[in-house]
Every structure is written in C-alpha cells, then in structure tokens.
C-alpha cells in the first residue's frame, strides 16, 4: 500500500493553496486510517510536539505527543471494537500566517465498550493545523459531539480469524 504524505513540497513561509489543501486532507485521512488500524505511533506523529486534543464533552484533554499517546492508549483500550468514518470539511488558511490554517472534520463513530455498552455518535473536530519541517500537522483538535446514541448496536463486529 502506498502511504499518504502530509509533506508539502514548498518551504515554510510560502503558500500554495491547492497543495496545502491536498496535504491537509491527507493529514486528516491519515489520522482516521491510523485510528482504524491501531497505529497509534503514527497517529501521535501527526501532531506538533505541543499539539493538543481536547474533548470537552467527555471531558478529556491531552497536550503534547506523549500525553496524546497515553490518552489514545487509554481510550482505545476501553473498546471491544471501534469504527470511525471521517468526512473532510472546510480548510481556511490563516491570512496572517502562511504556515497555519484551521478547518473541520466531520465524524461518524460507533463501537462497543468492554463493559458491554454500545455507543454511536456524530461529531466534529475543530482543527488548527501548522506546517512544520515534516509537513502539515495538527496543532489542536477540539472534539464536539453533535449526536449520541447509547442504544445497543444490533450488529456485531466482523473480527478476522
């Protein structure tokens, strides 16, 4: 499989709006891919060193790559299975900083927790992006829940044998 790249082939301080949009979309897709295949080292690398994930509705917050990794391990450890589907939303370049942008990612998630309860939701990541020497990274992701359903899921996970 060809890996996605989040590296913009322009130097920091310069803007190529189309390429920046493609690179940011790749970053957002790579996040969901890393979640779905449980590649949490890769997921953590998608943040700036001082990046943050904030989930006010949970409530939970992690600042810095080490804290994000610990938080992901803890949260994913609670699930028997977890599915995340993302849809890219707007990307808005910062008019004053060519190495910054903001945007949104829309989510549909469902899963079953190890305690036997089910959870399905729709949410939005409100993102801030920063171009680094390694390409575009998340500076911050703030998760907003829009809909939650704790009704037991009628299906079951298909677990590979």
Question: How does this structure look, described?
Answer:
This protein is of the alpha+beta class and about 160 residues long. The protein is about 25% helix and about 45% strand. The longest helix has 20 residues. It is elongated. The two termini are about 20 Å apart. About 20% of the residues are buried.
User: How widely separated are the two ends?
Assistant: 22 Å
Enumerate the spans where pLDDT stays under 50 for 5 or more consecutive residues: 1-10
**Sheet/helix structural class:** alpha+beta
- CATH architecture classification name: Roll
Question: How large is the share of residues in beta strands?
Answer: 35-45%
- What is the makeup of the main sheet? 6 strands, mixed
Mean pLDDT: 91
CATH topology: Nuclear Transport Factor 2, Chain: A
* Strand adjacency order, main sheet: 2-1-6-5-4-3
Cα gyration radius (Å) = 16 Å
Q: Element order, helices and strands?
A: HHEEHEEEE
Task: Report the CATH C-level class.
Answer: Alpha Beta
Tally of individual helices: 3
- Count the strands? 6
SSE arrangement:
Layout: H1 17-36, H2 40-45, E1 47-55, E2 60-63, H3 65-77, E3 79-93, E4 100-113, E5 118-132, E6 135-149
Parallel strand pairs: 1-6
Antiparallel strand pairs: 1-2, 3-4, 4-5, 5-6
Feature tags:
single chain; 161 residues; alpha+beta; Nuclear Transport Factor 2, Chain: A; six-stranded mixed sheet; elongated; disordered N terminus
Task: Write a compact overview of the structure shown.
The protein has 161 residues and is α+β, with helices and mostly antiparallel strands.
